[in-house]
Amino acid sequence: MSAAAQDLVVEHVFTAYDRADVLVDVSLRIPAGSITCLLGSNGSGKTTLIRSILGLTAPRSGSIALGGTELTRLPTHRIVRLGIGCIPEGRKVFPRLTVVENLVVGAYGEPRREVVAERLERVFATFPKLAERRTQLAGTMSGGEQAMVSIGRGLMAAPRLLLVDEPSLGLSPLLVQETFGVIQRIHAQGVTVFLVEQNVHQTLAIASHGYVLSQGRVVTQGTAAELRADPEVHAAYFGTSTTEGMR
Amino acid sequence: MDLLAQYLMNGVMLGLMYALVALGFTLFFGVLNVIQFAHGDVLTAGAFAGLAGYALVVRAGVQASLPQLLTVVLAATLSMAVLGAVLGRTLVLPLKGAPALNVLLATLMGGTALRECIRLFYPGGSQPQRFPALLPSTAWALGRFTLRLDNLLMLAAGMALVLGVSLLLQRTRTGLAIRAVAQDEETARTMGIDFRRVVLFTFALGSALAAFAGVMNGLYYNEVNFGSGLLLGVIGFSAAVVGGLGSLSGAVLGGFLFAGLQTLGAVVMPFASAYKDVFAFGMVILLLAWKPTGLIGEPLGERV
Fold first, then answer.
1. Which of A149, A152, A174, A175 has the alpha carbon at shortest distance from A162?
2. Alpha carbon distances (Å) from B137 to A149, B152, B212, B219, B220
3. Which of A61, B2, B41, B77 could lock B111 by a disulfide, CB 3.0 to 4.6 Å apart?
4. Å from A199 to nearest chain B CA?
5. What whole-number distance in Å separates Cα of residue B153 and Cα of residue B150?
6. Does domain A1-83+159-247 have CATH number 3.40.50.300?
């Protein structure tokens, strides 16, 4: 299959979630092999879009397809097993599972033990600290360590497409930098990355192109360079949009 | 002293039964945050399913008690595993997202319907039924205390079951999925875990445990009736809550604690042993006033 055939394509998606956080006619494309970003302030609908892709909140209408496979009618576990990994907002490690258990859960769709063990070794090679802490309960770790567990867990599924929801949330600037470095390394290994962020500058530094969401609508899109120069980006960042205004 | 040993043995037997019932409550609450109030009636239905299996093999001419016993246990546990999954699928999963009260009510009604069905449709179901003694009747007299082999066998089997459930949860892939769902359902789903399958498996497992407790109860008292599960259900629920809903060790602890309280009530008030349940439930209320979230604060999943 050609690379384009593996794109994740979102078309005319409407999702009603909490009243404040909806999607209105959202269309976007995450080309295979890219780092595509989605920028927007709190409540702009970023997390709702992730939830829609993962089937946690089903869209009311519209289409979401990965490599031509329609996702909107599938249950979450089936969507994930098509090769979509997730590093959720707020990390969401399983607090009462050990580090190893957290990671192994990440590979739940893979029944072959030896493959899981192999992936585990790869994650430990990326995050040696996790290997030292393998039997520690994830809930007792620091925020930065939990971030490693969450990223490692997302990698355990060996995804083609990795959804990363606000990785910088609650991390120190140094850890944010480290995390973005890890995301770049993951991308370099051939994984498509969809990076959802509020942190405009660091995100545009590693993304090739992106979209800006404001009040549930895509208000602008373009390459990273175009977005950096776009006043709409700065408007969206402060929760207002020059074309829409506050309604 | 001999009398005390007899009380102790009885207490341990009851404690194990309560623990088995409590395990179900705690598993259901763990994965789905619900109270499944038909659980006690599932226990009764399990005992009657075992009885029906027994009647069938006897009619088929099976005389030996070991195959009879295996039939009773398998008929009870397997049929209740299926029934439990069906109850989960029809009464509990459709109400996901509705207030917890709705599930409580739906299962309470489902349990009542089940109980009435046993009373009306099982041959002679409105009368207590004799439960066959299928275990060896060997007993050793140690002074005034009689140690019975059948009690020991039931104890060993029940303990093995509790241990097996614990190993299943701690050591297997399915167990890992159950624990993950218990801690964070949505994240578990995004890890590729089939949430509905995990829930239905858990309901099957918990209900099979109740069925085993029902058979144990029948073998212990040589009798079952359509209301057997009512009190056992309430006791199992209390045990799970006192131990800390969602915690496995809490359920086991709670079960033995309740039996201990009943026994204590009977020992310290031999003149009023009929009040042992009043005493035990009263103590449970006091315990809950003291520790509202149960004795063990290390649940299967984090609670909000």
1. A152
2. 56, 11, 20, 11, 12
3. B41
4. 24
5. 5
6. yes
Alpha helices in chain A (DSSP H): 46-54, 76-81, 99-106, 113-126, 128-132, 143-156, 173-188, 200-206, 224-229, 231-237
Q: B62-120, pLDDT tens digit by residue?
A: 999 999 999 999 999 999 999 999 999 999 999 988 888 999 999 999 999 999 999 99
Return the closest-CA partner of residue B5 out of B137, B147, B154. Answer: B147
DSSP letter at A137 equals B
Q: Which residues, in sequence order, are bridge partners of residue A29?
A: A9
Check CB contact of B178 with chain A, cutoff 8 Å.
no
Residue A114 in this model has a pLDDT that exceeds 50: yes
CA distance B102 to chain A (A): 23
Residue B299: what pLDDT?
52
| CA atoms of B106 and B91, how far apart (whole Å) | 6
Q: Answer yes or no: are the C-beta atoms of B237 and B133 closer than 8 Å.
A: no
- Token pair for A208: 């090739």
B160 membership: H or E segment, kind and range = helix B149-171
Contact B189 A153 (CB under 8 A): no
Are the Cβ atoms of B298 and A80 closer than 8 angstroms? no
Q: Do B195 and A76 touch (CB under 8 A)?
A: yes
Question: A230: buried, middle or exposed (CB in 10 Å: 19+, 13-18, 0-12)?
Answer: middle
Q: Which of B131, B109, B128 is nearest to B119 (CA)?
A: B128
Give the architecture (CATH level 2) of B9-122+148-290.
Answer: Orthogonal Bundle (1.10)
Q: Which residue of A has its CA nearest to B171?
A: A101
Question: Which residues, in sequence order, are CB contacts of B53 under 8 Å at separation 6+?
Answer: B71, B72, B74, B75, B76
B194 has a chain A CB within 8 A of its CB: yes
Where do the domains of chain B lie?
A: 9-122+148-290
A217 touches chain B (CB under 8 A): no
Q: In this complex, is the C-beta atom of A17 within 8 Å of any C-beta atom belonging to chain B?
A: no
CB B229 within 8 A of CB B29: no
Domain ranges of chain A: 1-83+159-247, 92-154
B176 pLDDT above the threshold of 80: yes
Residue of A nearest to B184 (CA): A94
Q: Is A70 left (phi over 0), alpha (psi -120 to 50) or beta?
A: beta
Do residues A134 and A113 lie in contact, with contact meaning Cβ atoms separated by under 8 Å? no
Half-sphere exposure of B70 (CA within 13 A, CB side): 5
Q: Is A54 an interface residue toward B (CB < 8 Å)?
A: yes
Q: In the predicted model, is pLDDT for residue B9 greater than 70? A: yes
